Fold this sequence. Notes:
Strand content: 15-25%
Mean pLDDT: 94
Number of helices: 15
Number of strands: 28
Distance between the termini: 29 Å
Structural class: alpha+beta
Low-confidence stretches: 1-10
Largest sheet: 11 strands, antiparallel
Amino acid sequence: MADTFSRQDAPAPRYLPISEHGLIGDLRTVALVGSNGTIDWYCCPRFDAPSVFASVLDAERGGCFELAAAEAARTKQFYFPDTNVLITRFFADDGVGEVQDFMPVTADAAEADRHRLIRRVVCVRGTLPFRTRVAPRFHYGRDPHTVRATGGLTLFESAGLSLALTATVPLTVDGPDVRADFKLVEGESAVFALDQVGGVVSPRRCAHVEAEEAFTATVAYWRRWLAASRYRGRWREMVHRSALTLKLLTYAPTGAIVAAPTTSLPERLGGERNWDYRYVWVRDAAFAVYALLRLGFSGEAEAFMHFLTRHISPGDGSAGGPLQVLYGIDGRTDVSEGTLGHLEGYDGSGPVRVGNAAAGQLQLDIYGALVDSVYLYDKWAEPISSGQWDDVCALVDWVCGHWDQPDEGVWETRGGRHPFLYSRLMCWVAIERAIRLANRRGLPADLVRWRQCRDAVYRRIMDHGWSAKRQAFVQYEGGDVLDAAVLMMPLAKFIAPTDPKWLSTLDALAAELVSDSLVYRYDPEASPDGLSGDEGTFSICSFWYVEALTRAGRLDEARLAFEKMLTYANHLGLYAEEIGRTGEQQGNFPQAFTHLSLISAAYNLDRALG
């Protein structure tokens, strides 16, 4: 439950801290709910659709769904245990109330297209007045809309999308918005439901009984899903919250997994490092599959494998390789990047971007992440098909012919291509895992060529990735810059975790890139990345560091670093991409990268501790 207490009567900041949010969703889209009760980010009908509520990116033009106590109140926020149902509580002088936010998850296609968002308000003690304002701003605030009250429903209609709002309290139309003021006494409740309507989905009211049934069914869905977890170790609550968060980032119709559900939340206030993460990064999704498989969730891995088979065939990408770095959640290849100049950005930090130009980059590491996930799926879930093996062979054959190219690397730098060590490392992983899979299953492959290439990559890394001057493995060949991505070397089983060269590298990283358990990716001044300004520590690197310490047998250090890292989570156990200098969350939120690496670090540390 939230430790923070905010007074509703105090001057409200225009922008809540990024960390002051929870997440709800229906496996097709999500909504961010602030600790003040406001939904300030919601795209409908799917993750990458234009926003309906986006006041997190522009307090004036973005649109929001406010619902809170109408008098001075402290707030706390928590998840209904073992679910993605979010509760925001209001503590006032005369009573206590709560808002229960959730989106029902259904297998019925027609009903799923409704994308029902339910907000149930309950007075649990005393008496409490509430106030709501529903202010949609369609298509990132660019499309006008009309408001029409009819038959107990309020319809918001724009050129591309129509929403129906139903409520159990009277609503008043106020220009483009709808408002309501109401008072509840102990035991009373009010229900608000927002639906996408049109086509086969007709408007439908949401009475108290239906809201209760939907609440019960949603709680049951999430608990039933989580019950499949095999994790019984320490930090179970944090691990399961991370798993529930990763599940929210899956797109049920295709099996896609998005990197994050938001766009343009800044990696540094006032900087330009703002990106749209509402897409499928091959790397991020493959790592997420690994984390979920570790816990026993094979269904998501199977769905992602089907996504790869249906929507991503080797050879359909750009000229830079058989795969793109990222895809749309429907498998589309066009994710062109643009900016929305009419939105000021979070707390004035523009630009607001839609789309991502990294799709056109060459990032060789994605092949290792993908083949490793296929290997683990075949090992822990079910054997891959002959067609999938043919695709793996095509990818590995391409890697064997192109592994020594310079590329933009895992960090998607915009400062030119380099022969990055991490890219070489993951090319080695792609070839090595394919060899393992072929041997275990007796599958046909050009094993002679694959082994020669694997060994050539190994020698190249050991001979050219090591800096005698720094006594460490470095960011790219011929350089002396340290990079936290090399923490993956022992995790990928490329090098023994107690190898003297690796231990020397670990000490060098600790001295230069680690700050009180938090890990920077690299030093932008020493290795210009084509962008201005600095950034916070990168949370996936911090969890990689924990795992590297664990594998090196330095368990006391690993456990302390992990426990410290847990203190940087928000009140709900959620993480953005980065941590700022004073512990604030920075970047898109919540971030799959961070949560999947938490799961891996916790799993391996718990196993090592015994």
